[in-house]
Design brief:
heterodimer; A: alpha+beta; 9 strands; rod-shaped; B: alpha+beta; six-stranded mixed β-sheet; five-stranded mixed β-sheet
Chain lengths: 321, 349
């Protein structure tokens, strides 16, 4: 459209040191065009063209647009756009392209994301801590407790099972136990504490063999053995012995005061259990018909607590109820 | 687990899976691959012979329209979407490997793929799955105009309207963006390929001569123009004369090509006008003040910005390096994932 005339070349040469805006203005004036005409041709507003000529880039939108405007302006005047752009690039040391940001997302989802990122790490640390703790306890237990005391016996059969799988399963279990100490698997996490608990009762360790639960468990089921040895306080009020005898399958849930001793699950007919741990016990029996409880050899009246066939009650063998 | 491990040895990639060209931007490295989206497939002799990939990319493009009977060079994408799923997957696999050439371990990068904003769910899923099939650990999708705007350096995060027109090989997308979101978008299935077709049919009509796609593309690149310019360019091409059946050479000039391109160009212009019509007034005034930005290979067509300026009366600007805008923008978006979970930018399936 606009024939490129020789003056333009000359203009470019002349303006080599000049800023792109100055060069454009000189060229425009040489062509005898007014600002208005140029603005109309470029479809820009006059102030914007003026800003271009004054190199006042702050008054113009982002670099993309400035480069585009300069290119179009140069073409309009018949100049080589690339030279103008090169001059622009020199005069405007490429500002670090401001990274287009995501709309500053609302605070909440943001923080949730942050958390989401941390959770795996935190879990890992927790698991490691749990493992470390478990290992420590094992060591301590090995050092201090030569024997599991009779208390150990309390977690009869159940314990025996637990003891074995305890080692492999703990890591997972321990992590779980951090958050939710749930009933049913009488957590291996809990069994060791019982063992660790023993140190205060060293005297007893002498009389039972040094092997883990199973053996004493067998022994304990006999009505006779351990109880007298119960705690230093044994002299005064030797914790009464509570024996449960089952004549029919019955679901039981027994917990002692400290929560360390637990007996959960279904027991079969013909089984006998002696309660360990510290009284009082919170007991739930699913089938009162099939259970007999002897407190220090005396029958305990279950019927008084039973509702239908289920009994929920607290048993403190020390005190008559 | 293994994928994550392998991920440590792979770069995050942003892929502009275009109809004409596939570009890959690797994080921290820039554009690492720019090849035509063409795959040449060799069919082994005999009935039911197995197929194998003969060539991909530049090499395959040179075969386009020049293959013997047992090789077919195909473009697995049509109009911005996958036309041949398995071939696309193979092609992506090849490209991803090529980018990780020096690695011993099979790459498993996080990949961001650009999809046309007009693509359907099925088409998006196809793209996602073919990227996953090509070994991507995670696949994100982003709408092309969004990536193009980011790549062009538009301030998409600001509460101001920016209009971007991305003229690709198969589709043209026009979108108005504000606050990292798309306010309006429209995709028309007109792009570089339609330009080539228009040139082919113009030449056939007026010169009774058939030319191939590659020749049409060359004509477009060398003398194509969207608006009458100050100079008239000429090119000599050879094609098969329909009447004589013999190859003949003839000369075309840029005004003829301008005439040939009128129809596809008017389609793009009307898409832009429709977008301006549909844009909310506040954003429309932002666009009017600053102008429209053109990206994509179509922006290289001579004087396309003049055409749009004249038609819309708004300033029109061609982005710098328009071909790579989408891939670069995708790369930037990928960086944002890590910085602050830029998931707002991404398209859903």
């Amino acid at each position: 459209m606009i024939p490129s005339d020789p003056t333009s070349e000359e203009g470019v040469e002349h303006a080599r040191i000049d800023s792109p805006g100055k060069r454009l203005r000189i060229e425009r004036q040489a062509k005898g065009l007014s600002l208005e005409q140029v603005a109309a041709q470029l479809h820009l507003s006059q102030p914007m063209v003026q800003a271009l000529e004054e190199d006042a880039y702050a008054r113009l939108p982002g670099p993309v647009f400035i480069r585009g405007y300069l290119r179009n302006y140069a073409r309009l005047l018949g100049l080589d756009p690339e030279r103008i752009l090169a001059a622009y690039a020199q005069s405007e040391p490429r500002e670090p392209e401001h990274p287009p940001m995501v709309a500053p997302a609302t605070g909440l989802p943001m923080s949730r994301r942050r958390w989401g990122r941390w959770i795996p790490g935190v879990l890992l640390i927790l698991v490691l801590l749990a493992l470390l703790g478990y290992w420590w306890q094992m060591r301590m237990g090995a050092l201090l407790v030569a024997t599991p005391p009779p208390t150990e016996t309390d977690i009869q059969a159940g314990t025996a099972e637990d003891e074995a799988p305890a080692t492999p399963s703990t890591d997972g279990e321990a992590a779980a136990s951090v958050s939710a100490p749930l009933g049913p698997p009488p957590g291996p996490g809990y069994a060791p504490p019982a063992a660790a608990e023993t140190p205060p009762l060293p005297p007893r360790s002498a009389d039972s063999p040094s092997t883990p639960a199973p053996v004493p468990a067998e022994a304990a089921t006999e009505p006779v053995p351990a109880p007298p040895a119960e705690t230093p306080a044994g002299t005064v009020d030797a914790p009464p012995k509570v024996v449960m005898t089952f004549s029919a399958p019955c679901w039981v849930d027994v917990r002692d005061r400290s929560g360390r001793f637990k007996m959960l699950g279904e027991l079969k007919a013909g089984e006998t259990r002696t309660l360990g741990g510290e009284p009082p016990y919170r007991i739930v029996l699913g089938n009162t018909q099939g259970v007999r409880i002897l407190v220090n050899g005396e029958p305990f009246d279950l019927a008084a607590h039973a509702r239908g066939n289920v009994a929920r009650f607290t048993l403190d063998p020390g005190k008559p109820d | 687990m293994f994928k994550r491990l392998r991920g440590l040895f792979s770069n995050d990639l942003s892929i502009d899976l275009g109809t004409a060209n596939t570009l890959i931007y690797a994080r921290g490295q820039g554009i690492v691959l720019n090849e035509p989206s063409v795959v040449a497939i060799r069919q082994d002799r005999g009935p039911g012979g197995s197929k194998s990939v003969a060539a991909v990319g530049e090499e395959a493009k040179r075969m386009l329209g020049r293959t013997p009977r047992n090789i077919t060079a195909i473009r697995p994408l049509k109009e911005g979407v996958i036309a041949d799923f398995t071939v696309t997957e193979k092609m992506l696999q090849y490209f991803i490997h090529k980018v990780h050439e020096s690695r011993m371990i099979r790459p498993s990068p996080r990949v961001l793929v650009c999809v046309p904003c007009g693509s359907t769910q099925v088409e998006r899923r196809a793209i996602k799955e073919s990227a996953a099939g090509a070994g991507a650990r995670e696949v994100y999708l982003i709408e092309e105009p969004m990536a193009a705007a980011i790549g062009a350096g538009l301030p998409v995060d600001e509460p101001r309207g920016s209009m971007v027109l991305d003229i690709g090989g198969g589709t043209s997308e026009v979108a108005v963006l504000s606050l990292s979101g798309i306010v309006y978008s429209q995709s028309v299935r007109i792009g570089g390929d339609r330009f080539d077709e228009a040139i082919i049919s113009y030449v056939r009509r007026n010169y009774s001569t058939t030319i191939g796609e590659a020749t049409a593309e060359r004509i477009k690149e060398e003398i194509g123009s969207a608006f009458p310019g100050s100079e008239v360019l000429e090119i000599e091409v050879k094609g098969r004369n329909l009447a004589e059946g013999i190859p003949r050479s003839f000369t075309l000039n840029s005004n003829e090509i301008l005439e040939a391109l009128q129809e596809p160009l008017s389609g793009i212009v009307s898409a832009v006008k429709a977008a301006l019509e549909q844009t909310p007034p506040e954003l429309g005034s932002d666009v009017a003040e600053r102008g429209i930005v053109i990206t994509g290979g179509g922006a290289l067509l001579r004087n396309i910005e003049r055409l749009l300026e004249e038609e819309t009366g708004l300033p029109v600007v061609v982005a710098e390096d328009p071909l790579t805008c989408v891939a670069r923008g995708g790369g930037r978006a990928l960086e944002l994932i890590d910085q602050h979970g830029g998931f707002d930018l991404f398209a859903t399936e």
